[in-house]
Records
---
Amino acid sequence: MRYEVKALKDGDAVVALTLDAVDAQDARAQASQQGYAVLSVRALGGLHLSLGSRRAKFPLLLFSQELLALLNAGLSLMEALQTLAVKETRPDTRKVLEQVIAGLYEGRSLSAALERFPSAFPALYVATVRASERSSGLPEALSRYIDYQSQLDLVRKKLASASIYPVLLISVGLLVTLFLMVYVVPKFSKIYQDVGTNLPFMSRLLIKWGNLLETNGAFLAIAFAGIVAAGIYWLRHPATRKWIASMLWLIPQLGERMKIYQLARFYRTLGMLLRAGIPIVTAMEMAAGLLPPVLQAPLGGAALSIKEGRSISHAMEANELTTPVALRMLLVGERTGKMGEMMDRIATFYDNEMARWVEWFTRLFEPLLMIIIGLIIGLIVILLYMPIFDLAGSIQ
């Protein structure tokens, strides 16, 4: 992707540079390496780029798996990275790999070369690689991260698969309801309109709804499309999603399940970092970004308690970052000295608990959803035919 960089060099006038970079930070770094003092960075391409397809996300898990396979095959780190860069077909990904290789040629460590691209390599990944450099265990670190990310992806896939059928039911129910209200009801209203004025209350409502659609159909369609577009735009804002998440946390049962899901991610991340040799407080600070705002304050309190000399189990319990079962597992980890492995077991316990709850919820929610949709559609159909029954009774 091309960026326009406005910068100063040796106190001269402002110059505009056009650079090919992975992201804005990469463009800034390239200009700084050339001796420029960067003032601003802007992506070139205009509005259509922002409305078009997004830049492909760096395939970190696939990169780690391929790099591990090449290292286990006996290739050196430089040879493995060059092999991955040569076979890569996506320009953005190849650009990142070439920049990493250039950093290694400049004498940087692998972690320092990766750290220049935070959009591709998150801080957790860089920290894991940096810890492995002290023990020359890069393959082990890659394998640890692959297991960690695979477990996180597995949980997300379970949640996504459990939501497919309810979403499908809701979509079909809305489409059927919309068809009835937009097409069928106006047709019936024209039939009732010719009968006369002595109609039941529901018949008069049907006639009014049909007349409204017939006279203002175009305006209502535009207004509906505008409302949908505004809703989508509103939901895309991070502040909106944060507000919705905070509201969901207030629902007792759902909020508790959301907490369990977040704690599972948190403990799995801590376990990976601790097994990589990173101190517990540093690991907690690095994992803080994974937690929602409602849990970040308790995490800060737990880190402070550990700095003051309290045990991990006491700090977690005092700040409500654990459950009774997880607390006992933390105590066992403190006695055995295998806190990293115990964190992984806690995360697995939480994942299994979430899986059981999701299965129970879907088994209960899906029939209830079908009943609700059936009642709504049935009510519309009954209201459509009720005037006919009334008219038939009056004729008799």
---
Amino acid sequence: MSSTTEGSPSFAGARSARYALGVLTFINMFNYLDRWVVAAVVESLKKSELHLTDTQLGLIPVGFIVVYTVTSPLFGTFGDRARRPPLIALGVFIWSLATALGGFARGFMSLFVARSAVGVGEAAYGTIAPALLADYFPLERRGRVLSIFFMAIPVGSAAGYIIGGLVDQHFGWRAAFWIAGAPGLLLSLLVLAVKDPPRGKSDEPRLSVANTYRDLLRNRRYFLTALGYGAYTFALGGLGFWMPAFLERVRGMSHSEATVTFGVITLATGFVGTFIGGWLGDRFLRRSKQSYLWVSGIATFLAAPVTYVALSNPNRNVYIPAIIVAEVLIFMCTGPVNSAIVSLVKPTERATAVGLSVFIMHVAGDIPSPPLIGYLSDRSSLEQAFLAVPLAIVLAGVIWTVAARLRDA
């Protein structure tokens, strides 16, 4: 079911809306910096006194994702029923503290626990912030607004790779975790000044928790959108975690060159791709109510063969441009698919819908992908293991296209 356009955010004015968008986007950058700093130090962890195998390295992000996945529906339910800014601030504080504690790890288990705790804080943030922004802005602007918010993904990810790699090179992997986590402990205070807007129209009845989940699971287009997001996240999670190690181990780059190169590419392509995707989704909304899904489906179909070339061709003059094109196309999906998720449900269900979609996409996506790629790498090679990524991208395109073609109820 699709929500109607709620109109401009007159309840607080444009200033409150802009402040919320600016603060939440800025903090979202640190969200992804903290999430991906571990990928920048994979090779250092492997060579460190912790003596980790590729399988263990692949399991480190799984602890985070499992906790993130399990707690997201819980925070989604809270986000539809309680004041949202304090919940978001608490999440920012928890994930930042847990990131810093990773720098004190003495073995696989202590690092695994610290990284897992990051998932609690990010679950509070990742489920509630998009729903809050959707209540600030009308449907016809939502693609561009959420694209701005999700531009923090490439910026933060790139910062995680670049800052993490450079700090690791000069001060060690422990310092990378400390520097990544510290700012968020203060930034959490900025969220407390964000106003909490009304959740959609005042005449929308609020369902019980059980009825809300039943309503969402019966929403075929929403469910398929989340499932396609799972295949997409499988690919993105595998690329994000293993690509710096791939460039260093398989393509022969130095450690700093690998992290900086991939970080810069992610930053540039993320800005371009996320902006184009959000703009196209809003632009074609007048022609199709499912324009967000069409943009996502077509972009992934185009991205799959280019990703295959990027991972299989050893010629630097070929694989670097291929990585750039593939990442532009992949990032084009970020704003549209998240806009689809919050627009396919009732306003009073949005945070719960985001939380449930997080659960679905991570169970099907980046919970299995980093350890599976690590497992396949231990038994063959990282280059061979990486070929699972373009297959997942194709699957995402198929599912989103099917969702877009469904007849409206």
---
Amino acid sequence: MVKLRWMWLVIGLLCGIPVMSHAQTVATLTTEVQSDQRAAMHSSARDDIARHPNASRYQIISTLDPVARTWQGQQTLTYTNQSGVTLDKLYFRLFPNLPDLGGDLTITAASVAGVSVPVQYEANRYLARLDLATPLPAGAQITTILDFVTTVPDNVGQTLYGAFNHDTQNIALASAYPMLANNLGGGWEIDVPDTKGDLVNSPVALYDVTITAPLEYSIVTTGTATSSTRTASNQQIHVVSGLQRDFIVVATTLAHVSTTVDGTTLNVYYPNGNVRGGQLGLKFARQAVHLYNDMFGQYPYNELDMVAVDAGTFYGVEYPGLLLFEQRLFSKAWFFESIVAHEIAHQWFYNVIGNDVQTHAWVDESFATYAQVLYREKIWGASAATIERTGFVNQYAKLQTRNSDGAIDQHMREFTLYSYNVLAYAKAALYLDAVRAQVGPDVFAQAMRDYYAAHRYKVVDGTAFVGAVQSACNCDIQPLYNRWVLGQ
């Protein structure tokens, strides 16, 4: 994510710009459906699904009503207990019920293994708990069916969260379904997230989603549409995903432009009338995807979408296979290019290589932020990279003058909004810059490729990249990690 409040600091330094009822019976996913999901993967990555046989599988059949601002459906989750312990309950996270999202997600009916069960809400309805009549042993599989209704707030993009909002052109439904909470070693990850930054921690899963919606909307989602049908007033699309950490739906009336790069289709939905901005976004995205394919490793999906939304708390935010950008960006070429470079990098660092965005938020943000420098260097040359890097240097220097320096590796709640925005982004990027300066650009590039190859679809902390670098350089970068990351 690129938060509005801190990015204006960069621009101000560089450019002098001021801040400114649908319930259907759903069959368990069949072998054919599982095979069909390979259609969402890049041709080079389709066998990756078979390597993750225990990935959770979400199947959702739903209806989207733009007038009522609701997404209503039935979700079937097939879950294999990989916690290592026997479970006597399941927790689902209902992100729309967080106050900073301003919406509502209600589960109207629930069943486990075919038996109806009550829904117990906790943490001001952020959590829904299902108690299991029969405990679920480690390694065993279970199916839950949840009927749900999600309601999106109206025109709150400037004050709440533009990724979950109905504006004049879009209905954005970020993380708008009941998402199973993580359970590692028997402990449920159910703390209410700090909303300074990103919210969703999740292992990779597979999504199979059918959406019925009015004809006048384009339905943009994580994954790839495999079929669509139309009546006189409605359309129904069927979407499958590859191995992804979340699912997002955006119903939009915006026009779009498209291209293909290295076997991946890019779609950019641009603000009304701003065709030039759409073409610029497409150009920047094409350059970034091609560059990162070479620099990090092949993007493993066959589609990537970008949508302009009304947002006041971010300039760009990443979801699997779908990026949202504040609509004003499409008229700010230099700034827009940096944000596109950042958010597209998150597809590698957050989606493919995951991290805990609450306890180790800097891990993905460091790579996405430093990717802005690497992008400028490769596309525009050393002087442009220096300008990009200087913005981060100046931000960090200002933080130091306020005696607010500290460790990068802290839980989100330990930061102020200001210190988070500088430490987890700018200082974290400068840490990577210091690593590159010590080992050299060629070794650093090899370490990036090794890191991506070794940790695809996993969840890591900051030590994973230390190991990749030290293997590539046969040297010790632990002192850099201790100083920059741990603040020792």
